[in-house]
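It is worth pausing here to work through a concrete case rather than discussing structure prediction in the abstract. The textbook approach is simple: state the sequence, then state the predicted structure, then interpret. We follow exactly that order.
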Amino acid sequence: MNLKEESGYKQTPIGKIPEEWEVVRLGEVITYVKGKKPEIMVEEYQEECLPYLSTDYLRNGKATQFVRITGSEIVVEEGDIILLWDGSN
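Step two, the predicted structure:
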């Protein structure tokens, strides 16, 4: 049990957080986009292709599949935070 009060923090329904923070629902601060596996994928890089973000890509840091850009893809931009959701991993 910690009886010492920490300065600079406040108690909230989710626990102590820095005083300058506020508790909000995740949907208030992010844009949630769920994609689908692209229909056109190739195993070697070609022009007009981008790496396909898979669990293997994130684990190994090497792209093994590429997506041909057609305009309907969701493209990750620098600074984006992504959560990769794979039902089998």
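Step three, interpretation. The helical segments are 55-60. The mean pLDDT is 84.
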